[in-house]
Amino acid sequence: MGLCGSKNPFKKTPDTKDGLGSSGSTLQKEVAEGGFGRANFILDNTGSLLEYYDVDTKKIGQGSYGSVTKAVNKSTRAVRAVKTISKSHVKNIDRFKQEIAIMKMLDHPNIIKLFETFEDHPEQALNHPWVKNHAPGAENTPLEGAQMNNLKSFRSLNKLKKAALNIIAQQMPDEEIEQLKKVFTSMDKNGDGQLTIQEVVEGIQNSGLKDIPDDLMDIMKQVDSDGSGVIDYTEFLAATLD
């Protein structure tokens, strides 16, 4: 599994090589002191997936290492795609856990998200959103005035509220954030899943909004919850939700 991006997603520690440690626990996205990223809110559960999900018996996909089935959360009724992998088929468990750690860090509107994992004795389950068959559009969707106001208001929230909005943003179904997704992809000119200050400025200009805020750099800094210097997809959603 590979990872592409314009910023280094690995935090090196003394026992790492090229950012990869001996286990998934040493693989981390660079997060500024006091910051938080999407990976902080993805749960690693022990025990049976069946305690929390109703899982279809019919498989919708089968590969060399595991199978994919449709599942419904018993509490929230959220529909998920679950990939179940027998650990007896995994030759290198540490490397497999590193791949899961990488999946947790991926944050792009056109890449499937990992919500949580379950691990019992014989197998590992990876919980993804239920996949719908639709391709991203190429249309230009401008930033609206209300969304700009939400960005401005976001910086006044305390860290707990910001963290809560990040959790809400990553759990929301695609149909409820479709318009925000279009705005983000329209502003993200190089398609790397991150907004730079220049891309935000151009997005404001293209939207027809009259003025670029004088304190735009401060707004960007407050929205950038992991301190990476750019706005990731989930950070954008959290800051622009109504």
State the helix count: 7
Mean pLDDT: 75
The CATH topology of the largest domain corresponds to Recoverin, domain 1
Gyration radius over CA: 19 Å
Assigned CATH architecture of the largest domain: Orthogonal Bundle
Name the shape in a single word: elongated
- The share of residues in extended strands comes to 15-25%
First-last Cα distance: 36 Å
How much helical structure, as a percent, in the residues? 25-40%
> Which secondary-structure class do the elements indicate?
alpha+beta
Structural domain tally: 2
Helix and strand pattern: EEEEHEEHHHEHHEH
Largest sheet, order of strands side by side? 1-5-6-4-3-2
Care to count the β-strands? 8
State the CATH superfamily name of the largest domain: EF-hand
Unreliable stretches (pLDDT < 50, length at least 5) are 1-29, 133-138
> Which CATH C-level class of the largest domain is it?
Mainly Alpha
Report on the structure:
InterPro entries: CDPK_Ser/Thr_kinases, EF-hand-dom_pair, EF_Hand_1_Ca_BS, EF_hand_dom, Kinase-like_dom_sf, Prot_kinase_dom, Protein_kinase_ATP_BS. This is non-specific serine/threonine protein kinase. Its cofactor is Mg(2+). This protein is 30% helix and 19% strand. By secondary structure, it is an alpha+beta fold. Helix 2 crosses helix 7 (233-240) and helix 3 packs across helix 7 (233-240). The two termini are 36 Å apart.
